Amino acid sequence: MHLGFVSAILADLTLEQVLAFAAEEGFACVELMCWPPGTSNRRYAGITHVDVSQFTDEQAHHVRDLVKVHNVAISALGYYPNPLEADADGRAVVAGHLKKVIRAAPMVGVNTVNTFIGRDHARSVDDNWNLMRDIWPGILKAAEHAGVRVGIEHCPMLFSKDEWPGGKNLPVSPALWRKLFTEFPTKSLGLNFDPSHLVWQFIDDARAIREFGGRIVHVHAKDTRIDHDKLYDHGILGLGWHTPKLPGLGDVDWGRFFSALSDTGYDGPVCIEVEDRAYEGSLEDRKRALRQSKRYLEQFMS
């Protein structure tokens, strides 16, 4: 396995600065964010370390040169919008940019693109499934043509009343993963596996790894702390009783997690994803979060 991090936490650094930091700290890889340039109203979104909007061979060559100079691999290109948002024009824009990210990946020597399936949170699972059947075949066709694996992150995207009641991402559990891979059996579709999203759903992450190990194309290392007092007060239908934390500071059993990963033979990237608000005060705090997470996770990885 290869330890890296998700570049979103270093939004104020350039691509070269991100790779230089990764090299200095001994990281093997980085997942690079590829949002279209502009603003976003969601934390950790709207970040552009590789702008694929009008991606040229010259730009791709520049990225490959930086990777070579710093000797840090790109684990994947990342773009995490909502491809099934309620607005039809918005869905078209998102799908169009996701296809650009997919086409850019092999140009910079990468075969994995990470994203969400998305969901219209006001619709049922069945209604969203029909919407997915309209949007996703074209995206997966582009991935197959480019020789790219699309890693679906399974975060429910349910953190506030703005996402209630369904959340803004559809395949969030093993039952829905089975249905997804039956619907789209292509090997171009896999999982970007993150245990932090399972621990607060009370889903056994190690069991999920053993069942779906052959579908895991990328791994995020993020933890979640469950606030049992808030859970007692509000129950599982309430909000705000689980909090993203650095690896080792939450409720994920990392020894069991890595034991399951190794049992499946997974040997790909494991990228630290920092969303811990306790480490957001400054750029140095965010760098410290990556260093601290790296030290903790190295005990499980050779």
Task: Write the topology of this structure.
Elements lengths: L1 E5 L8 H11 L3 E5 L23 H14 L2 E6 L9 H20 L4 E4 L9 H22 L2 E5 L20 H10 L5 E5 L2 H4 L5 H8 L3 E6 L1 E4 L1 H7 L7 E4 L8 H11 L4 E4 L10 H15 L5
Parallel strand pairs: 1-2, 1-10, 2-3, 3-4, 4-5, 5-6, 6-7, 7-10
Antiparallel strand pairs: 8-9
Compact overview of the structure:
By secondary structure, the chain is of the alpha/beta class.
Main beta sheet strand tally, sense and closure? 8 strands, parallel, barrel
- CATH superfamily caption: Divalent-metal-dependent TIM barrel enzymes
Strand order of the largest sheet: 1-2-3-4-5-6-7-10
Helix content: 40-55%
Number of helices: 10
Mean pLDDT: 96
- What CATH calls the topology is TIM Barrel
Strand content: 15-25%
Radius of gyration: 18 Å
What is the first-to-last residue Cα distance? 8 Å
Could you characterize the architecture of this molecule?
- The protein has 302 residues and is an alpha/beta fold.
- It has a single domain (2-300), classed as Alpha-Beta Barrel (TIM Barrel), CATH 3.20.20.150.
- The chain has 10 helices and 10 strands.
- The strands form 2 sheets. It has an 8-stranded parallel barrel with strand order 1-2-3-4-5-6-7-10, surrounded by 4 helices.
- Strand 2, helix 2 (57-70) and strand 3 (73-78) form a beta-alpha-beta unit.
- Helix 3 (88-107) runs parallel beside helix 4.
